[in-house]
Each structure stands twice: as structure tokens, then as C-alpha cells.
Amino acid sequence: MRTAIVLFSLVLVAFAYTKGEELKLAEPCDPEACKLPSCRCSSSVIPGNLEPRDTPQFVLLTFDDGINVNNIPLYRSLLYNRVNKNKCNIGVTFFVNHEYTDYSLVNELYNRGFEIGLHSITHKTDTEYWREASYETLMKEFGDQRKQMAHFANIPISALQGLRSPFLQMSGNSTYQMMNSAGLRYDLSWPTIRFTNPGLWPYTLHYQSTQDCIVPPCPTASIPGPWILPMVAWTDMQGFPCSMVDTCFYNPGSDNEEGWFKFILENFERHYLNNRAPFGFYIHEWYIRVNPGLQRAFTRFLNVINNLNDVFMVNGNDVIDWVQNPIPVNEYVKKDCKRLTPAACRPTSCGPIQSDHNPTPYYMTICNRCPRRYPWLNNPLGE
After folding, report:
1. pTM for this model (two decimals)
2. Burial of 24 (0-12, 13-18, 19+ CB in 10 A)
């Protein structure tokens, strides 16, 4: 009876976090009260208590920043027409910021079945701005970007579920209050260097997180609703942790294809041969483009994992779906592939467009009518 009452209370509280609400300090997790599908304690235990051999190994490939004519050629050549061994299209997540993004290309990626995530409107380079960001600021940066992205790329707003904070700079409780208000499902911004072997699985913030706080401030309150998808760190060639591939200081070098291939496999096998926590390949496109050895090695790695029966390239939403309803790999491979309703786009070139923050005019390519002003904070649609 007590467990049922607690679960009911958690469901009610999940809808209660809006601006100005007083937050309660998170308590240590109670596994008896925190149950899937809506609640999960922070833990390296495989969801559903499955054995590693019965667990799908998910690979999360993400790219950050704007989508434009500079990086779309690599995405097309590297990712298009790839399928997992179950014949379903691979999943990839693009965390996109607004400035200098070509929204017709965002539409193209969406129609290829890739996930579009949020990376803020401004992507300000001042990390203190993000560290001190209030609920109101984050609603303008991410809540409004969700509407902005759906509008200019002409994709369903319901498809925009994940976010990554610029520079992985946490904003404490404010981020997760904002996520509830903005209708966002998961955050993929929080690195862990403690829980890498075995890796940390996704969890919720109903209770106190045990994850190490690498880029404070981290959340301390009980905030039911959002999921944390931990960024399980890689280990570079001298044993130092790196949350994104392009931050691994001791790496094989630009042209060393064999070195990169071995380096990638070693980090992958730390997951695959252990508790199979999702393996993250988090990177910026430019880093692959300027390191030809990495590009060749990464292509080889993708070819390998796309031919393994128990490894699946998926997006962040797919991982949360499975965690909420964990099934063995022999059942997972039988699931129907996702079907996507295409989103129309008639590319429209706009500009020069004046802005309120930059004396230099902007140019945009979008999927509908041109805005009167350059879209920005407080005016995300450029009305």
C-alpha cells in the first residue's frame, strides 16, 4: 500500500514543477518505490535485471552545433543508407543550435530518420552564462528553441525530446524544471568519469543522483519527469577521461587509422564486454573532417557494429524507450522498424535579415515564409 501511495504521489509531482515552485531536496533512492517505467534509481544495474549477454548494446552517435552546407556532405557520406543488423535504419542524434543553421537540411536529416535535439538558440561562449542560467533564461534558450526548430524545419514538435547544454555546462535544478515545462524528455549533458566500468545506465531525478558532478552545478532537488542519459567517459591513451571524442588529449594522431580503430574498439569493449551501458560516440563533425585517420577508422567501426547481431545504433529517445520497457535482445531484434511520416519542405532562402543583437545581417534557408527579423531570444520566430 505504501509503495502504491508513493508512486501515485510521484506521478502527481511530475506535473507540478513550474516557475517559482519550491523544490524539495532529493532523498536517497528507494528501489521499492522507484519503479519503471516512470522512475529509475541512478545505477549501473542493467534495467530489468537482464544478464549482459541478453542485453542489447546501444551505440549513441551524436553531433553538436549547427547544420549547414559545410558539414552535411560528411553526414551524407558517412551515415545515409546505413542499417543495423536487424535491417532497421541506424539512429543518430544531432544537437543543433540556431545560429547559422540551414533548416532545410535539418528537415532532410529528420526525413532520413535521424533525431533532432536542442542545443540552445544563442550557444553563448560564456560558460558562466550557462552556469548561472535561471529557469526563465533556459525557457528562452531551449523551450523557445523547440518551437523555433519545429517551425523553421517544419518537423513535428513532438519529435524534439532531447537537449545538450553548450559546453556541457550544467545549470543545476533549473535545467530540469525547464524541461518539465517545455515538454522535453531527456538530457544528454552530464558526464561521468566515476561510473565507466561498469557504465551508468539512464535514470530519473525523483531521487538523489549518485552520479559524480564533473561540471557543477548539478541537480540536487527531487524533479520527477526528465531522464538523465549519462555521458559515460572514454579513456584516452594515457588513461585520462574524456567525455567527447574530440576532447581526448592523448589520441592516436590525425593520420593513424589503425591507432584510431584500436582506440575506438577498446572504449567500445569496455561497455560491450561489461554491463552494456549505452556506448556514446559524442563528437563534432569538424573533428572527423580534419582527421583523415579517424574518419577511415570510424567508417570501419561503423561497418563492424552494423554487422553485429546484438549491437544497435539508436538515438537517445530509443534508449529511454528500452530502459522503460527492457526486453532481451532476442525479442528486441524482432521489433518492427520505426516508420516515419515525411515532413515536407520547400527550401526558401531569406536575407539579408536584420537582427537586434548583431549589426551584420543574416541569411537563412528555411522551410516556410521568411521572418521579418532574425529569430533570437525573446523573438524565436522573428515576428
Report:
1. 0.94
2. exposed
